[in-house]
Design goal:
It contains four helices and five strands. The chain is of the alpha+beta class. Helices cover 28% and strands 18% of the residues. The chain starts with 15 loop residues before the first helix and ends in a 22-residue tail after the last strand. β1 and β2 form a beta hairpin. The chain has two domains: 94 residues, no CATH class; 58 residues, no CATH class. The chain is elongated and about 50 Å long.
Length: 166
């Protein structure tokens, strides 16, 4: 596109919150491979920023050009909508959604192994663990935590993230 500018605020920069909405929409309509690629790319990008904190936006330069995400000169970090993007990325990976009075979890294929402890929903605390490299083999466990202390779900290893920033 002729107007593309990798450091242009609205015509080339990468906005994590936009990518979170895009990934959630793709997953909702069955494009799980593409959603997973965006989410992994955003977490890979976060690993290059101080404290693994996604900034408000970063330059849309190609990985083949520079090899790392380039900070946008005037981006805010921390930024609330970038922090919120991380939560939506995780919700999308786990496929977390309310279903009536229950909490439903359907992980995306190829989502990493993860565990959320003490997740609050409708006044209760849940531990949710998604394990297995594919959703078909995944075992999602939702447990109501003991009111006097959390029952621990199994500790799951950190994901190895792939290529692409979203």
């Amino acid at each position: 596109m002729a107007a593309y500018n990798p450091i242009g605020c609205h015509n080339g920069a990468v906005w994590p919150h936009d990518n979170a909405l895009i990934a959630a929409g793709l997953a909702r309509y069955g494009h799980t491979r593409e959603a997973n690629q965006i989410i992994r790319g955003q977490f890979e990008a976060a690993s290059h920023f101080p404290g693994h904190r996604l900034p408000e936006l970063f330059a849309g330069l190609s990985r083949s050009e520079v090899g790392f995400p380039v900070e946008y000169p005037y981006a805010n970090a921390p930024q609330a909508w970038a922090a919120g993007a991380v939560i939506l990325f995780l919700e999308t990976w786990v496929g977390l959604a309310p279903s009536g009075r229950r909490l439903q979890a359907r992980p995306l294929p190829d989502a990493p192994r993860m565990c959320w402890r003490g997740l609050r929903f409708r006044g209760r605390s849940y531990d949710i663990g998604a394990s297995g490299p594919r959703a078909a083999q995944s075992q999602v466990q939702g447990r109501v935590a003991d009111p006097h202390g959390l029952r621990r779900a199994p500790t799951l290893p950190s994901p190895k993230l792939g290529r692409g920033w979203g």
